[in-house]
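Dock iron/sulfur cluster; give full complex structure.
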Amino acid sequence: MHPAPSVIVFTTLSGLGFGLLTWLGIGMPDVSGWVAFVFFAIAYALAVGGLLASTFHLGHPERAIKAFSQWRSSWLSREGVVSVAALLVMGLYALGRVFLDQNWAPIGWLGAALSLATVYCTSMIYAQLATVPRWKTILTPALFLSIAVGGGALLAGERDFAVILLPVAAVFQIIWWTRGDLAFEQSGSTLASATGLGEPGQVRAFEPPHTGTNYLLREFVFQVGRKHAIKLRIIAFVLGFALPVLLVLAPFAHALFAVAAICHLIGIAASRWLFFAEAEHVVGLYYGKR
Amino acid sequence: MTHHQPQIDTSPKVSDEVRKTTCYMCACRCGINVHMKDGKVAYIEGNRDHPVNKGVLCAKGSAGIMQVNAPSRLKSPMKRVGPRGSGEFEEISWDEALDMAVALLKPIRENDPEKLAFFTGRDQSQSFTGFWAQNFGTPNFAAHGGFCSVNMAAGGIYTMGGAFWEFGQPDWDRTKLFMLFGVAEDHDSNPIKIGIGKIKGNGGKIVGVNPIRSGYNAVADEWVGITPGFDGLFILAMVHELFRAGKLDLEYLSRFTNAPVLIDAETGLLMRDENGKELVIDRRTGKLSAFDQKGILPDLAATHEGNRTVFQLMAEKYLDPQYAPEAVAERCGISADRIRKIASELARVAFDEAFELDQSWTDFRGDTHDKMIGRPVSFHSMRGVSAHSNGFQTCRALHLLQIILGTVEVPGGFRFKPPYPKPISAHPKPHGKVSRNAPLDGPHLGFVHGPDDLMLREDGSPIRIDKAFTWENPMSSHGLMHMVISNAHAGDPYKIDTLFMYMANMSWNSSMNSSGVMQMLTDKDENGDYVIPNIIYSDAYSSEMVAYADLILPDTTYLERHDCISLLDRPICEADAAADAIRWPVIEPDRDVRGFQTTLVHLANRLGMPGFVNEDGSAKYEDYADYIVNHERKPGIGPLAGFRGKDGDKVGRGEVNPDQLDRYIENGGFYVEHIPSGADYYKPWNNAYQDWAVGMGIYDKPEPYLFSLYSEPMRKFQRAAEGHGDRQPPEHLRGRVKETMDPLPIWYPPFEENNVDPDEYPVHALTQRPMAMYHSWGTQNAWLRQIHGRNPLYVPTKIWEANDFAEGDWARVSSVHGSITVPVAHMAALNESTVWTWNAIGKRKGAWALSNDAPEATKGFLLNHLIHELQPPKGDGLRWSNSDPITGQAAWFDLRVKIEKADDPRESQPGFDPIKSPVGQGPDELTWKVGK
Amino acid sequence: MTTLPETTQRKLGLVIDLDTCVGCHACVVSCKGWNTENYGAPLSDQNPYGGDPSGTFLNRVHSYEVQPEEGAAQLIHFPKSCLHCEDAPCVTVCPTGASYKRIEDGIVLVNESDCIGCGLCAWACPYGARELDAAEGVMKKCTLCVDRIYNENLPEEDRMPACVRTCPAGARHFGDFADPESNVSKLTAERGGMDLMPELNTKPVNKYLPPRPKDEMDQIDVLAPFLAPVAEEPKGFIGWLDKALEKI
Ligand SMILES: Nc1nc2c(c(=O)[nH]1)N[C@H]1C(S)=C(S)[C@@H](COP(=O)(O)OP(=O)(O)OC[C@H]3O[C@@H](n4cnc5c(=O)[nH]c(N)nc54)[C@H](O)[C@@H]3O)O[C@H]1N2
Ligand SMILES: Nc1nc2c(c(=O)[nH]1)N[C@H]1C(S)=C(S)[C@@H](COP(=O)(O)OP(=O)(O)OC[C@H]3O[C@@H](n4cnc5c(=O)[nH]c(N)nc54)[C@H](O)[C@@H]3O)O[C@H]1N2
Ligand code: SF4
Ligand code: SF4
Ligand code: SF4
Ligand code: SF4
Ligand code: SF4
Ligand SMILES: [Mo]
């Protein structure tokens, strides 16, 4: 899949933003006033920034409102609805925290749940797609959620949780990668099943339909070199998980939290780049690209 | 929950109006419905009533809308201002352009008509352009048939009075076994596809003989991946098998072919009576008889005073073990068992699945047959056979195979389309008598009957610039357009003054040795003048050739002009109907361009050419439309056969009808006249057909004839080479004429096999037509060029692996003549010693209003750079034309090459400087919708 | 509406005969022509005369080679457009309801005025049947020529998809799969019409007819009768000829 910057920015930032909102919703850290304002501002900047970025790849962003209508069946629509709900509810909660020094805990808990649900919906947009075997797994929501809460904990300054949750996310990440590498083979989709031509013998794509390129090739048939991918996985692992944990465990950790968070963000962005770039869509079979 | 869905308009208005005309995205000439919105072309679909395409339309046809809006369309007459080949032009007015042309042409006509060479390319108005050239008086006229497929046309017409190409077709509804030799697309594009669909639907089988298994050959039930150039051997091996097994239609052979005709043992000529009629022995009486006597049964086995029949010579020749499947298998690349199996399948279907139509008919002898016997085997062939230097004989061999199976002009077999069948005796002979300021003594092209008909001067030198109808290629019925530029450049046989060309991209894809041709077109003599002094060219688009002309006469597109697809020319008939068609301006040009035929009329009028002006010098025709309606070739016979006579109720023959074009338009742009049933098979011998054809003006009197399995004209040339007669071939050609002019079909190796070292050049290199692209001119089409914007060289598995090729690699491909460096791709379904590419995808930078980085110019390429118009020098230092020695057909597919992996040169090699586009470049985006 | 109808009254779709398709691309271009002028926005082309031309097409013809264990490789031309799946994942993922499956005939359509161009439906389609138009920013797909098949401004015989009407080889068939007596149902039954990527459970309506067995005359079959010679010698042949001629 084409690793479009807008979707990478979207999933990375909004995942982290909603992760942080989740922690804030359950009152961790237990802050109010200006301090709360800063935390909420960061969370909203990430979440809303991510959501806005996601509209960049729309052909008609001005019609985005229509995307709220199909929550009954569409994960993308659900994500829209739930994210707005999460932002509204958390907004109310933040109002209490920042300006009124109130902790409306039930609203906070609801907001936290909605924030998690948003991340879940985001992940399900991908996890539902049988056309991309690497994504089509319950591990995808597990990965997205664990990264969101782990990263959220980091941002929330919840060191004790972060040092547990980030390694958990790291484990999901490794399992996800490992499974992903075999997913296409195991999906059962092959050029033979795609064309129905396997009966007489071995099928090979001879000529593409057009000598020029097209939307499908640009969007779905992106290939990363293996070496390149391994390098990026290492970067994602080290920056996304290992380094932040080490940094917050180090002495003078307080000063290093910001550095850890930035490392994490970069690492997760790399992971998301790979999330798309390594994902192969079955349509590539028709083009002999797999 | 209820299901909500939007309301949509499922009955939108399709168009304001439908205008019916004829497609010209290729030469198949399908009928089209042009849907108009707001006076613009909105959508093009096939015309269901049209005899050619019956409603279907190919990719090119549907893309016509992108042709009519192509940014490459020429806008106005132009004169060259930069050096030749630069593409620098200045737009001029039509008056100026015509004045310039007349200034060149008038003195030529008055002093030396042969100094004009007028050659037309992929044109369909040859009866008109030929008429123009004849009245101009130059002997130097031909269309492109010589480099295209004259072997097919001549092979068929000399053998059976009709040919493959678009001149005949299988009986698609009844055929059960269809064998296709060397066809990728053909001119009969849609009819062949419709036919293949029919055969599949009827449960018939298709055998595709082709080194490459794509397109038609991919859907064939059997693929015979033959070695290029060896079809003749394969065919004759099947003929051998059929003779051995006696699986021959003896009755058909004895009645309708010259198989029972006696050969004079001394001369090898057919024995004839005092009226010139071929002689046979009547089986019933044992007496010598003219072949056409009522009630006779010509005897195939007869001997008369030591003179044997053609059939006996055939038996002797084809039973020879040199034609046994084992003897040919390896060279053909087909196992002996498979050859036998195919031969036995042909026999099985022809004889065991024979059927009868309950239709009586009377033959030319006056004998009535109460049934028509069907033999559901049919064949078709095109350039894979004809574009070899042995193509004429191979083509004849294929006709021999058809005829011994009795499958020509019978139900289920191969059928001619009017105006065929037509024996060579009913065709004109070539003419070349030049007089100043006067027409030529007759039509340029025709069919020679022997050495006497050659176009040679007293001193034996060629009359024509292309050396057609000389000992180099005596039966070159279509001329040799591919030799014109190199002969004119060499001044051999003489120098010319003006080269006038129309619709032929001669500086690029239509020439052999394209780089050499570009050089010839720009070469200067010691005085600094161009060696070919003047070049006038008519194109509709900014092609590669435009840059090489001094004066451009811009044509319209096919939807903007009148055209006439005439029975006098290349017909659009079907086997059971005569048909012709027109084009008419369904839109008006938005540029200063004119239909080329109209331009020719204007030139003829200014030159005061007979045929075009009246006694008093006034013009007979205002423009081409006027000519189409009012011209009469013979009294009552004009370019169009339909709606003749004052009231438009006459067909074929009839006075001029001033409303003829309107009647055609009302009728959908075409006219069809069906052959009455009972006249629609056995046409060469069927009285009912012959009478119908006379009524239609196809012949002046019935012209029944025998199929010439034994070709007497060829024997006459061969006999001359044996030293008989006054007209003798030059010594260096004597041996070749003797060998190749065998009056019975033979096979000899394509010349390249002997001209180059096959060990050094082990690979055959071919091109194929892409179905969705027409030569060079499809590239300017925004939709089609997305389908075929590049052309890799397809390489078979064995060569692919031997060179360790991978996707994205490049190869250097070399022939004895030159080398190119091009991208490669792997193809398994391919003869193991053959590589190929799509024809004419490669483009010159700057042409066709494309940007300089167009993939056609950077990745695309032509094989033409590897093919020379001359063969390598012989022992005596002479270089013969790279053409069939009989017809002069360009031997494109003889090419042998070697291949090696090459470094990525970034762009295909050789590369050429960009030419300056005289029309600018196209837009960056298209969102084409005319009805808003 | 993004949820799929439980059932549709008819199941309109195409049968594509891989044994007959010659790969001519006629269907590709007539589809482009019709749909550029009709339903929704025109199918645009970017850089149409430049170095990297690319445009929206609703139907494209691939080609594949099949190499059997024994014998020559085969080449198959393979047209592909929307298969109008019964369980169309492209519809259920759509956030706006722009994608829907028609209840009366099962045609899967995009309502362009609702489409935000998010591309998700194209992600969900296994077959590459949807293309986002670069000029208009909306999703384009085969409409099964919904604006032809019921169009009262067209003569009745022309109320079929443009690609079917134009296919010179007759390799494309249009009809109602819900009717077991329809041409398409019969062809599917007779010729073993198949689904593409059945493992994805999209239940495509369009069916593909597999190529028939090829090159049977190339199989070594010792029992096959070859032609029996009438005589070994040319002389003997003439003797045979004399006898054979008696019978005429
Ligand atoms: N390697 C290789 N080369 C080949 C062949 C091959 O098989 N292999 N095939 C050969 C054969 S058979 C042929 S016929 C030739 C074809 O070669 P050409 O006849 O040269 O082919 P085209 O490219 O069709 O172009 C003819 C010219 O006609 C122009 N044209 C198009 N429409 C119009 C119009 O309406 N009016 C006018 N005035 N001009 C128009 C085009 O712009 C183009 O410049 O190529 C030959 N070259
Ligand atoms: N779409 C489209 N249609 C066209 C044209 C076009 O450019 N595009 N051009 C038109 C013109 S001008 C012409 S002349 C016709 C030509 O129509 P075709 O005769 O179909 O011409 P080619 O495409 O040159 O195909 C020649 C075929 O012969 C095969 N072949 C080559 N050598 C041999 C051999 O030795 N033996 C056998 N058995 N096969 C061999 C090649 O593999 C190829 O498949 O098409 C016309 N129709
Ligand atoms: S075959 Fe195609 S391009 Fe040629 S005339 Fe017919 S529709 Fe037009
Ligand atoms: S039009 Fe017919 S034969 Fe041509 S590519 Fe399409 S389906 Fe195949
Ligand atoms: S083919 Fe693709 S676009 Fe068409 S219905 Fe099926 S999933 Fe949807
Ligand atoms: S691109 Fe349009 S049709 Fe497709 S899912 Fe998005 S909104 Fe729906
Ligand atoms: S049915 Fe209509 S929209 Fe669909 S592929 Fe055919 S022509 Fe295109
Ligand atoms: Mo040609």
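Observed: Residues 158 and 449 of chain B are 10 Å apart (CA to CA).
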